Amino acid sequence: MTDAAVFLVAGLCLLLAVVLPQALRRVAVSAPMVLVGVGLLIGLFPIPDSLSLEPEADRELILHVTELTVLVALMGVGLALDRPLRPRIRRTWGYWSPTWRLLAIAMPLTIGLVALLGWAFAGLGPAAALLLGAVLAPTDPVLASDVQVGGPMTAEEIDELETGLDADDGDTAHRLDEVRFSLTSEAGLNDGLAFPFVYLAILVAAGSFTLADAGTWFGWYLVGKIVLGVVVGLASGWALSRVAFRSSRPSLRLAEQGEPLLVLAALLASYGAAELVGGYGFLAVFTCAMAMRASERAHDYHRAMHEVVERLERLFTLVVLLFLGIATTNGLLDGLELSGVMIALALIFVIRPVAGLLALGVLPKPAEKAGGVSRADRLAVAFFGVRGVGSLYYLAYAAGEVELTDLAWLWSTVAFTIVASVLVHGVAATPWLDHVDRRRGATGPGLAGPREALDPTSG
Question: The domain spanning residue 255 has which CATH number?
């Protein structure tokens, strides 16, 4: 493939990224499916010798590209969530009940079950098995746009939402889209919360894991780094919001000027600050976005920032999916074995659905309350646990920290799982969520508009 051909293919692929979201709005084919498919086809043709597609050789490139992609997606997710969460008001924590359940129950279960299969069925060592579970457990904020909320609501919709929630209005609870909200908020938080288990696998692989190591892991990697990430994110979001919305100097009130690039400064500053002090940067970015959204919740400035992030996310996703598809037909699956295929399919069709149903079904909150998930919606939330770009990042990160004898098998299995998830969840998303909307009677203005509540193709 000549350089001119590379430019031509890149331009055509970028055109695909632009037109696909609109062209596929009501078709049971998602944009990620098409982009991966295009990559698979491109990979069948000769590629330049200078273009290496070996994950072990290009680990640094994979690490940084996937890192940026996830960061952009996390900022977008944090800005898009309209449901309030006020730390001092206990009632608002209940609005997020499905999220806490998925994080506290479904995610650890998924890690444990996948690790168990890797150890017992694939013959992996304890460290590699644990790493496989940690890498594949988090749902993805990048590839799950078809099952996530759209952009921020308008001021009128926010007022209607908060009025209904404050009044504990049953009609408001009925019209809330718990499926998309649960999947979006889960994806926003579990990418950061998977890191402690990745570190646990790294510590186990590094040598003997003593009781002292366990204490260090719990106190620092599980608790300390999470707290630091959240605190840095909240502080960053609060400080930037004070400047953008309420600065004493008009020239600094960026919200009034409509300058949306503040969102990129917020993303980079919160991530960098959290990493410098040792916290989890992914959590910092998400909580920074949440803190910014909590300030002047109904301001149109959030919508402008979200549009910038959404376009960046689309571009990064294009790059990652194309190269994933190309690499898949150029040797990335050479290390794939039947055990890896079975684990991937078990995760998609059994482990995640069962873990999700258990998480949402234990002492469930009444469906007529905000944060309560009906039985039918629980199945949708449990099933649509899309795997994606975050898994590639975590595996690339771990591969740079410790030597793993099963690394080729891990790359092949993780890549196959992502491609299978894109195909399975992409086909099912539109018809299933259309059915969810029809059953809820989600038509009309306000909460039934095409945002948090209701557009199955938004995001």
Answer: 1.20.1530.20
